[in-house]
Design a protein that fits this description.
heterodimer; A: OB fold (Dihydrolipoamide Acetyltransferase, E2P); Chloramphenicol Acetyltransferase; 10 helices; about 30% helix; B: Non-ribosomal Peptide Synthetase Peptidyl Carrier Protein, Chain A; about 0% strand; globular
Chain lengths: ~400, ~80
């Protein structure tokens, strides 16, 4: 039985991507978690991992082709049968296998491509009818992906001129496409999700004192950031209180069994991504901190994994030091909640009847009325506060 | 190490931890935060890089001294032979 490796959804704001690199060829053995391809998206270049063990049968979508989420990119034979044990696919299967237009394969085609294709040791050569041979050669020389071109020749064939024009065309501004993707996701969020917002001011003086004392005792390489405490406190709160960490799909809410907190990372010059720290609640603080450093670095150099972008069950957006008091965050569908943190700042506060300077932070929650109400949201923020203010237990 | 060499090396470290920053555009006297949205994560990564390179442990209380290229070079100059 051959299984299909499809382009995964990478969150609400991505519906297509262009394959820019294959790391595997037919006949290669792959293990769950291997990065097998790189896809260019509105969020930058993203590594695609495979989710099962097996042998690559066939590469369906060649480099350069832009395809929609859900498109079959490759076929994987999960059984490691010896080479030669299965018949090679019939000649005629090849053109259909690289079909990238909307027409579904004919029934007889489908029957044929399901033949395990582990045997051919040579890569399946993409045979796309509507590119002239000269154009294809030129495209290879110039590094232009012909699959994504709109042909101007007969019957829409891609011509030499089309290739040369594409090669000289300025590459689209990635920031602009990311801006469009964010706008589209946020419009959908505001259209579909009945948001409610809550905020609370928290005296985090004991937390910042604990953190400063801890960081003073360790080498710079082991220091923690306040944001790491927030992420962990949030993950634990989600695990303890249902209704905030999960997905609303097809009219119903499903709590996620694991909590993967997404961390909103601002990109220099604009734009933002929110990759997840997997199983956040189970990670000790030093591990969490290392994971955050790694994620931020990769977010800013455009090497995130697809699974990290699709995984968040809730997002934390922390505007950081010297910024603003509070943020009113917008939920990223299909999630149902997002937590915001303003800057930690020294402010007057009343303790035991006296006004004293304390370190305050404003935590906020944007949540989904289809799932919870303000009362539960308030309890959630109170729990988050309690968790955060007891850093030794994080 | 003379100041120019130190400055050059610090700039290299800066672009290692923030590859999305153009080293040619760094203004020595202006805070990194103002120039390219340096945040607490960048500062920590920068402090770690300086530690790795020069063996200097920058306490959190001294982070303000790393705020710009100029300040940083002065700070390091006083601490390394």
């Amino acid at each position: 039985m051959v299984s299909e490796f499809t382009l995964p959804a990478l969150g609400a704001d991505m519906d297509a991507g262009t394959i820019v690199e294959w790391h595997v060829a037919p006949g290669d053995r792959v293990k769950r978690g291997d990065v097998v391809a790189v896809v260019e998206t509105d969020k930058g270049a993203i590594d695609l991992e495979i989710f099962e063990d097996g042998v690559v049968g066939e590469i369906v979508v060649p480099v350069g082709v832009r395809v929609a989420v859900g498109t079959v990119l490759a076929r994987i034979d999960p059984e490691c049968r010896p080479a030669g044990a299965t018949p090679a696919p019939a000649e005629g299967a090849k053109p259909s296998a690289v079909r990238t237009d909307a027409a579904p394969p004919k029934v007889e085609d489908r029957g044929r491509v399901e033949v395990p294709a582990a045997t051919p040791a040579t890569p399946v050569t993409p045979l796309r009818a509507r590119v002239s041979p000269a154009a294809r050669r030129r495209a290879q020389d110039l590094g232009v992906g012909v699959g994504s071109l709109r042909g101007t020749g007969a019957e829409g064939a891609v011509t030499l001129e089309d290739v040369e024009r594409a090669a000289t065309r300025e590459t689209p501004d990635p920031r602009a496409s990311m801006r469009a993707a964010i706008a589209s996701a946020m419009s959908r969020s505001k259209r579909e999700i009945p948001h409610y917002y809550l905020s609370t001011s928290v005296d985090v003086t004991p937390v910042t004192a604990w953190l400063a004392a801890r960081n003073a005792e360790v080498s710079v390489t082991e220091r923690l950031l306040f944001a790491a405490l927030l992420v962990k406190a949030l993950a634990l709160s989600c695990r303890e209180m249902p209704g905030f960490s999960g997905f609303h799909r097809e009219g119903r809410y499903e709590e996620s069994p694991a909590v993967h907190v997404g961390v909103a990372v601002a990109l220099r010059g604009g734009g933002l991504v929110a990759p997840a720290i997997m199983d956040t609640a189970d990670q000790p603080l030093p591990v969490l901190m290392a994971a955050m450093r790694d994620l931020v670095a990769r977010a800013r150099t455009g090497r995130l994994r697809a699974s990290e972008l699709a995984a968040p069950t809730i997002i934390l957006t922390s505007l950081g030091e010297d910024s603003v008091d509070a943020v009113f965050p917008i939920i990223q569908p299909p999630q149902v909640a997002i937590v915001g943190a303003g800057t930690v700042a020294e402010r007057p506060w009343v303790v035991d009847g006296k006004v004293v300077p304390r370190h305050l932070i404003t935590l906020s929650l944007g949540a989904d009325h289809r799932v919870t109400d303000g009362r539960l949201g308030a309890r959630f923020l109170a729990r988050l506060t309690r968790r955060l203010c007891d850093p030794a237990t994080l | 190490m003379i100041r120019e060499e130190l400055s050059k090396r610090v700039l290299e470290l800066l672009t290692e931890i923030a590859p999305d920053v153009d080293p040619a555009g760094v203004i020595p006297g202006t805070a990194f935060r103002e120039q390219f949205d340096f945040d607490s994560m960048d500062t920590l990564n920068f402090a770690i890089a300086l530690h790795r390179e020069f063996g200097v442990e920058v306490p959190e209380a001294d982070y303000a001294q790393l705020a710009s290229l100029e300040k940083c070079v002065t700070y390091l100059g006083e601490r390394i032979a």
